[in-house]
Amino acid sequence: MTPPVIALTAIVLVPVLILMVLRINAALVFLSLCLGDVLVQFVAKDTTEFLTLHNGKFVQASTGNNSVKIALLLLPVVLTAIFMIKTIHGNGRLALNLLPAAGVGLLGALLVVPLLPPGLSHNVVNSSLWTQVNKAQDLIVGASAVVCLFVLWLQRPKAGHSKRGKH
Question: Least C-beta-crowded within 10 Å: which of 13, 79, 128, 161?
Fold first, then answer.
């Protein structure tokens, strides 16, 4: 395997493994990744300008902007992951959690790779595997979103069942 393929594989599989091993609700992490993308779209420019204004030596504009974008993208994901450790109970739910976890890994790759430092990003983007992932981005996003919603809907409490005892 070539280094770009190894890098892309790691970018996809590491989040999946972390979510599964720590039993983190991947559907909520997926939604946090979507929130992070919204933050990147609407907040990154102002955040970069604020940091540059208050710290004139921040970093060169493009590199600093991408660093801010990566931070804004991943901050909700990391916080959600921390707060959701061990929230998946039972082996059936853990197995079901694999589908949204895969969505997190794939969507994460689609969003993070273009923000990586130019050398690494260029190598990954020019690989044949990235071309295939990029062609499937509509399917990745759409199917992952539907799967995550379905998993969340399955997690709602059943009617008449309460975690509290009877009064």
Answer: 161
